[in-house]
Amino acid sequence: MAISQSVGWMIGVLLSVFASWVGAASKLVIRKSWKIIEGVKEEDDNYLTLFARSRFLHSLGLFGMTVLNPACGIGAMKFANPSLLAPFSGLTLVWVVLFSKSTTGEEPTLVQIIAASTIVLGEIIVTLFGDHSNEDELSLDRFNDIYRSPKMIAYFTGFGVFYTLVTLGCKSNHPMIEKLSWGLSGGSIAGLLMFIKDSLSLFKTESPWHWQIWLFLSGAMFVGLYGIRCLSYCMKRYDTTYSATMFVVSYIFSADIMSLIRYDIYKNMDTVSQKVMFPVGMIILLGGVIVLMTEKIPGFCWRTVGACRREDAKPLLDGDNSAIVGVGDENRSLSSADDKL
């Protein structure tokens, strides 16, 4: 039985809302899996029970992010236009803010709530006024021409340099650099959406045995799984609100920059309002990111632009004062239970 267009878009919206909830729940569950073994030692009586529970929750969260969430997102695309569904990705942050306290015991601060709301507003503006065109089919000749062009070679070179700096930043002794780097590590690489989009477009016009298709499908799997891995380790170190928000924002920024270069989205913007509001939305997003990334960094305070000492910095592990959230330490060591995850 065919579903009418008037009903189909509502199904797409419901699936997209559910996908955002699954994404948020998965992130919270992974954060919970790290927290329940904080400070636990192998000689403790409840070590095996807590370790098994932690592994189960961690696996459950990864399943939600790698299987259930993408499945709902793909299903939603069958019923509604992506331009309608894209803003609902911001709901992930809303669910995280709403349920952080009840699931992980981490109550979002007022600054985090305002920053997350600002980011969601920026996401909505970018989505509404961005390029809504779609390159549905792609020939092998055009594919080769695109990815051999100087601009794409420059893009991949630039991204390689950027991600190398992000990786080095995760080991930095500077708290802000370390925190920002972990926040950017997952979403920025997961945002390389041309791997999945162009491989599927090639499938529609070319034989499935071309090596370019399988190279890009392999690339799509790698950037997706590696992005989730980075997000998991970010949530091991920082609260869920920060980790989830930075993942979503860096994902959007990475995808938008890639689209500017690969798909020439500005050429497809027909109205002045699109060309004006798209960068406005990006600026609003950036403002929220700056506020969020400096929240709870030891020694930083917005009231005096970093001059006052923050007293609310929390240790990564109970009883381990050398492992402070956001503070690099060459001698930092996690508990043996954490390392086994």
Automatic annotation (TrEMBL):
Coarse class of the protein's main subcellular location: membrane
InterPro entries: EmrE-like, Mg_trans_NIPA
Topology of this chain in the membrane: Multi-pass membrane protein
Keywords: Membrane, Transmembrane, Transmembrane helix
Transmembrane segments: 6-25, 83-99, 111-132, 152-170, 182-203, 209-228, 240-261, 276-294
One CC-aspect GO term: membrane
Record's subcellular location: Membrane
Molecular functions per Gene Ontology: magnesium ion transmembrane transporter activity
Protein name according to UniProt: Magnesium transporter
